[in-house]
Amino acid sequence: MRPKCHPGYSGPIVSFEGNFAAQVLTNAFYYNIQDILDKIDKEGVYHTSTKDALSWGGYKSIGTFRKNLGRYYGDIFSRDMGRSLQEITMLGYTDDSSYAVPIITLRKALQWETDSSLKVNDMFLPSHWGMYVNKHNKGSFENDGHGLTTLFIYKLWQRLPNRDEWLRSHWQEIKGSGDWILWQFDHPEISGAANGLLHTTGESANGKRLFGLIPIAFVWTPFRRWHKWRNPLVKQTLPGNGAGVPTKCVKQFQKNYIGKRSKNMAGYGRFNMQAGRTMEPYLDL
User: Fold this and answer.
1) Is residue 97 packed enough to be buried (19+ CB in 10 Å), middle (13-18) or exposed (0-12)?
2) How far is Cα 256 from Cα 238, in angstroms, rounded to an integer?
3) C-alpha to C-alpha distance for 106 and 112, rounded to whole angstroms
4) CA angle 85, 215, 45 (to 5 degrees)
5) Dihedral Cα 212, 131, 243, 170, nearest 10 deg
6) How far is residue 102's CA from residue 52's CA, in Å, rounded to a whole number?
7) Measured at the alpha carbon of residue 185, what is the angle toward residues 184 and 188, in degrees to the nearest 5?
8) Vertex 39: Cα angle to 105 and 33 (nearest 5)
9) Residue 242 CB-half CA count within 13 A
């Protein structure tokens, strides 16, 4: 089998060397990238399911095979969008991803700060993304999706020719993604945060406070970079230590994830240290 690009593919040329499986991976890469691009419609809106996508059954893929379904076309899950748009952005598709950001992603998040119907305990919440990007769901603390979406915005910002102007025009929404993390620490009775760790309701954590927070661990770097880049603007509004998170939270995070907090956490600490070394070059933070 020879590598074959998806019809209309115009992205970078890649190849995996080796046996038959390597050739399969090369084809999968081309088709997956094209599929991500196809999830962005003409209005610049991302969709979790590609339009008219196949279905192999229900949520657990057990059921009747159906064509032209696009089961989650009407949904934008933050975890899916964050990692997908981050990938195409890093591959150079900034026109596609930059169009998708302001229309729904940032504007929808900002409604948490302005729409009185979204108040929790009579409080407005900072801009953030829960399970969904295109609709609000109270009680969703899907921090993995929030972190991945923030990282996507950061990767896009790095590659925009007018990034200084872009950051100014979107700072209120972007700042909220850092404030949201601090807000959870400050309101543990609502967020479930405890012992310096955030509660995560997404599938990657199921309420546990470990794997779903790996993307959040990388969010500190974008806010440090944004603070440095836009110091005259950000200095007056960025909370904590100027990096988007209080120093005590950083230290607590390092203690819980990397340090030997307990016998149960020690193994996970080593895992995170390994993951950090592996992921940082890819994320180019």
Assistant:
1) buried
2) 25
3) 11
4) 25
5) 150
6) 25
7) 75
8) 110
9) 10
Q: Which two tokens stand for residue 183?
A: 């807000």
Tell me if residue 4 falls in helix, strand or coil.
coil
> What is the reported pTM?
0.78
pLDDT in tens, the chain (285 residues): 566 676 777 778 887 888 888 888 888 888 889 899 999 998 888 999 999 888 877 666 667 778 888 888 999 999 899 999 999 999 888 888 887 787 778 889 999 999 999 999 999 999 999 999 998 988 888 888 999 999 999 999 999 888 888 888 888 888 888 889 889 989 999 988 887 778 888 777 665 556 666 777 778 778 877 877 655 444 433 344 434 444 444 444 444 433 333 333 233 222 222 232 222 333 344
Q: Buried (b) or exposed (e) across 210-228, using 16+ Cβ within 10 A?
A: bbbbbbbbbbbbbbbebbe
Structure tokens at 7: 């019809």
Residue 149 phi, psi (nearest 5): -70, -40
Alpha carbon distance 185, 200 (integer Å): 12
Cβ-contact 157, 163 below 8 angstroms: yes
Burial class (CB in 10 A: 0-12, 13-18, 19+), 182: middle
* Cβ neighbours of residue 38 closer than 8 Å, sequence gap 6 or more: 50, 51
Q: Which two tokens stand for residue 14?
A: 């890649």
**From residue 39, how far is each of 35, 198, 242, 285 by CA, in Å?**
6, 31, 36, 26
Give residue for tokens 């295109």: 134
Query: How many residues are there in the chain?
Result: 285
Which of 135, 124, 221, 229 has its CA nearest to residue 178? Answer: 221
